[in-house]
Amino acid sequence: MDLKKYFQQQLLYWHDTENNRLLPWKEEKNVYRIWLSEIILQQTRAEQGMKYYERFIKAYPTIQKLAKAPLEEVYKLWEGLGYYNRCKNLHSTAQKIAFELKGKFPNTYDSILELKGIGPYTAAAISSFGFGLPYAVVDGNVFRVLSRFFGVDDPVDSTSGKKIFQQLAQDCLATKEPAAYNQAIMDFGAVVCKPDLPDCANCVMQKKCIAFQTSAVASYPVKEKKTKQRSRWFLFYILEQNGRFAVQKRTAKDVWANLYEFPNEEFAEEKLWKQAAKKDAAQWLNAKNINSAHQLLTITKPLKQQLSHQMIYANAVLIRLKNNGKKIKQYEWKSITELKHLPFPKILNDFLNAKILQLFQLNDAVITQKT
Ligand code: SF4
Predict the structure, then answer these.
(1) Is the peptide bond between 61 and the residue preceding it cis, with omega within 30 degrees of 0?
(2) Which of 131-135, 190-194, 230-234, 354-358 has the lowest mean pLDDT?
């Protein structure tokens, strides 16, 4: 039997007999829900995405409800998922479909691909799950499964390699049941042919899997370049004046775009970051033209957060500005209650959840320095 046919049959057989992966969007026919789940699942593991999916469906049961919601409220619901452009695109696409297209979701692969925030993978997923169209999904999971089973050693991160895998995926697709096939390959990659420790011993493909038969499972998929990891060091300044806190919207096209943050400095080296945390807060305030008298309350312990290609290190300096009548206009000033409703990056929420704001309500015992 043709190897591609064998692969397709075994995959569907596994899906029918062994696949018991439960996900809330599986077998879903409502295209709004399918689209929502696919946007959440971009760059997010299914286990993490589940609670966000349920949260969104509860808050916005229809695309019209999502379209009418204020963007900031949608960001707040998205908080912690990362890649915040997805959230912005989700909201603007909801508005386009609800208002310009009168609630009718585009129903061809090309028209779905034209929507903001949708690439070939998501367009293939929505086309097949929502409309039964014969488009194969291709992502990291699919690269891995296909490269191992067929023994393809073209790099998955090269332009030519991507084309080869795209064609191979399309050739293997069960065109009469694209939704079941696409679901099957995604689940198979997640629970059997996993990145580490694939379950080859119990795999229905084992007999003809080239990687397994040549004892080379660990050599696939082949990658051309190693992804570089970047480290970044931030020092946040949590300024309080008369019970209100200085915040700003992050406008840089960077991590956390459009979320709120405390005023901060980023450092090119760990050494400079450590030195900065020790320096007198007055230097920073002067540099920012903030001439108010102040108390330095404390400096938090450093926290770190792993993003996909970046390691973030951060700590926060808590500063109470005395009310000397001067208004500092360059920031928005929010109460603690208001802070709770603003969308913040996870690492800043970790600071807030560590109850550091309570320090502002404590007495002078916590004050380590006075100026
Ligand atoms: S035998 Fe192993 S490597 Fe091959 S498809 Fe199955 S799980 Fe993947």
Answers:
(1) no
(2) 354-358
Extract the runs of DSSP E, i.e. beta strands, from 188-343: 230-241, 244-249, 260-261, 264-267, 294-299, 303-306, 310-321, 332-334
Question: Ligand 1 mean position to 149 CA, how many Å?
Answer: 6
What SS3 state is found at 246? Answer: strand
pLDDT of residue 276: 83
Which is the catalytic residue, given 18, 28, 38, 265?
Answer: 38
Residues forming beta bridges with residue 334, ordered by sequence position: 245
Residue 202 DSSP symbol: G
Tell the residue nearest (CA) to atom 4 of ligand 1.
209
For the CA of 148, the closest atom of ligand 1 is: 3
Specify whether the CB–CB gap between 11 and 181 falls below 8 A: yes
- Domains belonging to the chain, first-starting first, are 3-219 (1.10.340.30), 230-370 (3.90.79.10)
In the numeric block, the tokens 């920031």 are attached to 331
**For the chain, counts of helices (H) and of strands (E):** 16, 9
- Average the pLDDT over 229-253 and give the result: 87
Q: What is the pTM of this model?
A: 0.76
> What's the CA-to-centroid distance between 337 and ligand 1, angstroms?
52
- Closest C-alpha to ligand 1, atom 2: 200
The pLDDT of 256-281, averaged and rounded, is: 85
**Burial environment of residue 138 by CB neighbours within 10 A (0 to 12, 13 to 18, 19 or more):** buried
Is 269 catalytic? The answer is no
Ligand 1 within 6 A of CB of 151: no
Our answer on whether the CB atom of 193 is closer than 6 Å to any ligand 1 atom is yes
- Does position 153 have pLDDT exceeding 90, yes or no? yes
Average pLDDT of the chain is 88
Give the pLDDT of residue 205. 96
**C-alpha angle 208/209/210, rounded to 5°?**
105
Distances (CA, A) of 11 to 151, 197, 329: 17, 19, 61
Between 79 and 228, where is the model more confident? 79
Q: What is the pLDDT of residue 326?
A: 62
Q: Cα separations (Å) of 359 from 234, 236, 284, 290, 292?
A: 21, 16, 21, 22, 20
193 compared with 272, residue with greater pLDDT: 193
